[in-house]
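Problem: given the chain below (112 residues), write out its structure.
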Amino acid sequence: IYTQIVKNKQYPFSGRFRVNMGNIYFKQEKWTAAIKMYRMALDQIPNNVQAIRFKIMRNIGHAFFKMHQFPDAIDSYENLLMDGAQHLDFMTGFNLILCYYALGDKEKMKSG
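Solution.
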């Protein structure tokens, strides 16, 4: 039923449902499906709702981190840093430093 709701362009909360579906996939460790849902949600959530958009982008970074796709995770985390550092939490910063470590980037680890 979720799939039918989110496909309905008339339904105003379909973006939120996609976030929920992404969260379910994340819990099931279906990282690729979670990223897909999060990205689709970003397309539907208006730009004026920055706090939610940042949380979704953070979740995308966490999913890439779980898949050990560290360059993609770094891109997500660094975009968060550039666009709104006030939305960062400890885990996001810590994961960014771990990504730098995994790739052997000592300089970025120091500045991270």
